[in-house]
Amino acid sequence: MPIVVMAYQDIGWVCLDELLQLGAEVAAVVTHSDAPGEEIWFRSVADRARTAGIPVLAPVDVNAPEVVTRLAALAPELLLSFYFRQILKPALLAVPSRGALNLHGSLLPRYRGRCPVNWVLVHGEAETGVTLHHMTPEPDAGDIAAQRRVPITEDDTALTLNRKLADAARLLLRATFPALLAGAVPRIPQDHARATTFGGRRPQDGRLVWQRPARELRNLVRAVTHPYPGAFAAWGGTKLFVWQTALVDGPTAAAPGCIAALSPAGIVVGTGAGNLRLTQLQLDGEGEERAFDFACRHGLHPGDRLENGPC
Length: 311
Prior knowledge:
The protein contains eight helices and 15 strands. By secondary structure, the protein is α/β, with parallel strands linked by helices. The protein folds into two domains: 2-198, Rossmann fold (3-Layer(aba) Sandwich), CATH 3.40.50.170; 203-298, Roll (Methionyl-tRNA Fmet Formyltransferase, Chain A, domain 2), CATH 3.10.25.
């Protein structure tokens, strides 16, 4: 059964790898050219496909008529999408004779849209997962074929959670593949009344607003730490990246953004509710370092504010 695979990022690599190990007949792989300036921390879908001798396309517009025509000529029975970044239009969705399915990085109908791994961490969720669903012109809204749940720990970052989701995606695909081949994939309608949708995140969305509770600030840091652009405050008029933090028990010890204490364990900062220990910092243009080393080098003291203006 000929299958067209559209994939990118590490989850895309894992799913393509699993399909090939399962003996799937992958007629072509459609992926993306790496964007200039993006930190490429994931394995290459294109390289995995070429190693297996599979034709690779990386069109600027996957819905362009010439791309649709080229894929239709392959007469695929299925189209499978794994972390592909473009929305597929009806003409392309109509190409596979048995339909198109997409793997989404959340437990649909919650967290539809872009960057679900980051958003679940921003919102402090304790659980997420992966969902294989039938594709419709409306993104992430089609009937559910299968889901696999993934717990989120307090120490998870977007990178560690992405790796957990990749493992879950491999297992889900392995379990679902016989039904895909048999044309017997379940169709469970989503409860659209429970749907939540989020858009893409921008580097400027990582700004730390010290008036927010310490837990919310920590969640933001772990959602956008390496390999993402990072959460940031300011010091001396320069952007100060905060790569790692920890919650500190006890009542709020300083005004929001003000340093309450310094020790080799880090810099304790007051917030809108509670205290946050900063443990890894990086001033824009400098190297990353322990927060205490940064404080010593720059002469920080309790009472200083990590943004312009006195405490």
